[in-house]
Amino acid sequence: MAGLTLGLSRSPVRSFRIIRATAKEWRALNREALWRSIRGLYRSKLVRTKRNADGSLTLVLTEKGRERALVYDIDKMKIEKPSVWDKKWRVITFDIPEKKKLLRDALRFRLRQIGFLEFQKSVFVCPYPCDNEVEFLIEFYDARPYVRKMLAEGLDNELHMRIKFNLT
To answer: Which of 145, 146, 154, 86 is CA-nearest to residue 119?
Structure first.
């Protein structure tokens, strides 16, 4: 994911931050989880391997992988508003430890940016289908252990939220 982010980054400052963060993460990486993830990518046909002259392997995005990778530009990502609301609320909750405050703040920022409203400090709601966008954010920030998704048929302050989303 860092390679993809690095490739999409237009800022040299952000690129260096990604490289530094990647080096730290690489040292702390769970090798078994890495191999599980790589096998999942092979099965999904998003990557293929290329054998290098020195005997090492390079993972290369397939055409399907390139299409999927370029679907979301995290800085421009927005949730599409359907023509008819299905009357369901998408609720995202997270409990991110204090030592990962930057992750928590980044996730809050991105959820607001793509169209969620803050219901409580760590609870965000959106009335529109957004599973792909949320999954992308969860993977992008490596936040899966901390984030939960719910689909709700009602909210206790639904009228207020309907007004905020212009659904009245």
So the answer is: 154
Residue 151 and residue 128: Cα distance in Å, rounded? Answer: 10
Does residue 75 contact residue 132 with C-beta atoms inside 8 Å? no
Structural Rg of the chain based on CA atoms: 18
DSSP type of residue 145: G
Split the chain (168 residues) into runs of 10 and give each run's mean pLDDT.
54 64 64 72 75 79 68 80 94 95 93 95 96 86 91 94 91
Helix residue ranges, H only, the chain? 2-8, 12-27, 31-44, 63-70, 101-114, 131-140, 158-164
Q: Which residues of 36-58 are buried (b: 16+ CB within 10 A; e: fewer)?
A: eeeeeeeeeebbeeeeeeeeeee
Token pair listed for 101: 């405050």
In CATH, what number does 89-164 get?
A: 3.30.70.240
Domain residue spans in the chain? Answer: 2-70, 89-164
Token digits for 42? 């092979």
pLDDT at position 6, please? 47
Lookup: tokens for 158? 């639904």
